[in-house]
Amino acid sequence: MQETSYSETPYTALGFYHKISQLRADTWNALKRDLGILVRLNDESRAKNLIKAIDVKLTRLEIVEDYHAFPSKEDFRHLWTLFDREEYVLLEKVVKRLVRALISESYRRRHVDLSETDADAEDLETLDALAQLRRGHPASNSSAQPYFELLIVDNLSAQEEEVVREAFRNMRRPEDKFVYDVVTVRSFEDALIAVLVNPNIQACLIRYEFPYKSKYNLSALRNYLEGLSEKDLEHQTEAERSILLSSMIHELRPEIDQFLVTSGDVEATASRDIRYFNRIFYRETDYIEQHHTILRAIDSRYRTPFFDALREYSKKPTGVFHAMPISRGKSVTRSHWAGQMIDFYGINIFLAETSATSGGLDSLLQPYGPIKKAQEYAARAFGARQSFFVTNGTSTANKIVVQALVKPRDIVLVDRDCHKSHHYGMVLAGAHVSYLDSYPLNDYSMYGAVPLHEIKKTLLRYKRSGQLDKVKMLLLTNCTFDGVVYNVRRVMEECLAIKPDLVFLWDEAWFAFAGFNPTYRPRTAMHTARSLRDRYRSESYREEYATWKAEFDRLDPDDDATWLDRRLLPDPDEVRIRTYATHSTHKTLTSLRQGSMIHVWDQDFRQKVEAPFHEAYMTHTSTSPNYQIVASLDVGRMQAEMEGFELVHAQVEAALSLREQLYTHPLLQKYFRVLKNSDMVPAAYRESGVESYYDPVTGWNQMEEAWARDEFVVDPTRVTIAIGATGVDGDAFKNEFLMNKYGIQINKTSRNTVLFMTNIGTTRGSIAYLLDVLIKLAKEFDSRWEDSSRPERKIIDNRVRSLTQELPPLPDFSRFHDAFRPDPAGDTPEGDIRQAYFLSYDDENTEYLRFDNGELQAQMRGGRDVVSASFVIPYPPGFPVLVPGQVVSEAILAFLQALDVTEIHGYRPELGLLVFTEAALVAPAEG
């Protein structure tokens, strides 16, 4: 057998590792199919071609399986032996067993010996597969020991690998909480490939000396190894190379527990920067100590402190002389009428229902026990300094953060098309709001995100006006509902160069999953906060800053171009990292509805924020929080730490498969156009020049380049499809076609787009069903056209033109009326939204004006500033086009007139817009 370079095969998609698990599964199935045909074939010419194809597939699979425990290297030697001996019938049987074991995941529960070929062994695999189908997924079998794989990095011979693997297998005991198998790799590059392509790896043992270069020519590491070479590493000591490998594994998958086995001076090694190693072993340390240390480390992530406490509580006999008749299920188990709740939900949910904060439980408002521990584990999982559970959604989480950090009359820079909870949070806090406009995507009736140039320009206006000290916070949505993701590091770094103590609130409601994927993670708030803190503490940054500052000081500081047209660096002696993120855990990870989290990475939290944060938390958190939601957050965190990498990996794969079909299927392309990077991010914000992540020739290789360099990127798991060519608007397509006809649920639409979001629960079967539905709909639209009369075709053409060409331009924020501006004569745009909001409470201050009959337009032509007295939010697109105190502009009015949606919050068609009377604006009451 020849050792083939992976890059010489058509499977170059390993260069973008997201597709590897699908490639692996599909190639095993194709191999099984080819062998089945071969053993039943009488055509010698076709047989030769099949044998060549089987050889290629085995070669490809051997490369992938080098990084997995099952099938092992010994198993593959057995496959090659059968192939070389031309024992194709037996080879087919072995491959069938192997594929069944992979599908049923029986290898996770017991050792699968592929050398066994008797009927009993095959029956066992079949029973495993049937059991998996009955359960839905083997992981749902809570009685089974959770399985993981241990990666060992060491330059071992094949015989030594088997000795090490067997030694760890012999450590297993029935009483162990977990079961694991061993993967061995021989080089620096192979170790990184293994953690990328094998999600089962949960622990890594780095041993002795190992070379840098892999025996395979794999391109997947080009972005991670930039600047490194074999020549650089050959001069490193064993400890230096091990520490570097450990840091890179941590960057790719920070959840992996790492251990160092050294043959050198263990005490000297321990004194180095070994922060990512759980423990150092000397080479003479016996296997049993390593075994138990590894299991303890895995257990520290597997624990669910509050969920465990709640389960224990549910088993205790108690007498409830407290609130909640439903506690312990008493009010329903004794009922003659409400018993169906028990039938539907089961008894455990009621046994765990309580309002008690004792008996092993805890208080969410002032945690000291299992909830406190669960929140500490969440902080570890999401890379935060502190994390807090929220049981009434991210809308509340946002208000808590704003109230804790913002005092009345503090200036806050806010993304204007952010979630409505932020606008209401500004009202509650009494902030002076300075709205930032995102770049518009007029062709699709949606906004992108706020350009960094716009943010810096606004900060400079406050700097020049002497009010920069009043600017407290920058509030942005990352990622947006439509999947536009910021370059968080660049935004924070350049803003901190202008205002070193600026607080950042990143609304990551739809991005909670991102911390568990190495491509996504660098664009998250918590990862950026930690990496910037480390960067600014380093001597190398001080040197970089000194060089930059010397050049910057030669420029004119009063020229805006000095600040706007170049990258800015903050002063390491002044900068403070103050970052908050809110996550809708229930939206993208496992949690019951309204389960959310607040993550904090604030160097000044203890000194300045802890007390007001506690008060804000008390203000917005119920004294009777739902313990089931708290428990689900605890379990969701554990799942994310243990298998988040695998689940997000599968989510991305599913989205890429969907996109690939939409890019290439001729009938689907006729009516449905999936929006690419270039559709959603203008060229000015795509430094990489990448227009689409997918190319029919090179596959998905361009995604990492865009995510590493561009100001904005698009999350590929959000698949936005332009449907204007169907002649059906987004709302009708969602309800009449997708939901009512086929039971497909989606959330977000615009006038001419629909958004399909994959998540960690999306399966390949779900993708196949969606594609089948879209193909059926495309055929239906074809038939509609063919069966239409000439006048009907005219109507369809008009609808298509309306949805593809006659789209109203999206309006920018106009301005706050001078009555609500703290300094009407000043050059800064902030307004007192709270004052305007509460001024509208008195009926004499407001009136209704209609614009459908020209009444409002006539007032504007007469010179009146018409000022909104309420939030006006059309759905879609779902952002406020008017806020209290904002002047109605002609652009906003034109947009409202052109809208053909029926749901506009804050607007009553029979009355019109609620606006302030002119008298109310002369001397508005204090809010």
Automatic annotation (TrEMBL):
Query: Which SUPFAM superfamilies does the entry mention?
Result: PLP-dependent transferases
Keywords of the record:
Aminotransferase, Lyase, Transferase
Name the source's superkingdom.
Bacteria
One Pfam family it belongs to: OKR_DC_1
Cofactor or coenzyme needed: pyridoxal 5'-phosphate
Matching entries from InterPro entries are given as:
LL-DAP_aminotransferase, Orn/Lys/Arg_deCO2ase_major_dom, PyrdxlP-dep_Trfase, PyrdxlP-dep_Trfase_major
KW Nucleotide-binding (keyword) present: no
Q: Name one GO molecular function term.
A: lyase activity
The chain's coiled-coil residues are none
> Where would you find the membrane-spanning parts of this chain?
none
Domain Orn/Lys/Arg decarboxylases family 1 pyridoxal-P attachment site: where?
304-528, 579-764
Descriptive protein name: Beta-eliminating lyase-related protein
Q: Which organism is it from?
A: Halomonas kalidii
